Amino acid sequence: MSTTSVRPVEILLVEDSPSDARLTMEALKEGRLLNSVHHVDNGEDAMAFLRREGEYENAPRPDVVLLDINLPRKSGLEVLGETKADPALRSIPIVILSTSKHEKDVFTAYGLNANCYITKPVDLEKFIEVVKFVDHFWVNIVTLPPKS
Question: Do residues 41 and 15 make contact, with C-beta atoms less than 8 angstroms apart?
Fold first, then answer.
């Protein structure tokens, strides 16, 4: 059973690879008129966006964060840890979307309260399929926490 969101869903994509970011944003936007995808390419900007600091002062609160763990300036695991430790941000679902299959990364991400961990497929078509599935699951199936 699925429930369709009645308000736009704000998605924050934290990805430093320009090609992965472009493909992910295209897959997320396909067929979604109400959803907004915002992109930052490093961990420091991700935290500034989430905390609405500096140039992100007017940024919307994301409903879902898609987070790579291998980022410049602050790792995705650091972003995850800081977000889940912050009472104002911890209810935002965070989906780890990474090329890393290392057990240590998976274990650490779940230990920091990641909502799920997905290894990016290397095959282009499978990558797009996974992103579309993530979008469908988090936008159409899951009941997201209300905006506070």
Answer: yes
| Distance, CA of 15 to CA of 37 (rounded, Å) | 12
Q: Are 63 and 10 in contact (CB under 8 A)?
A: yes
The domain tally of the chain equals 1
Closest CA to 15 of 93, 98, 94, 89: 98
| pLDDT tens by residue, 102-130 | 999 999 999 999 999 999 888 888 888 88
Whole-prediction pTM? 0.89
144, part of any domain: no
Distances (CA, A) of 22 to 14, 31, 41, 86, 93: 12, 16, 11, 29, 22
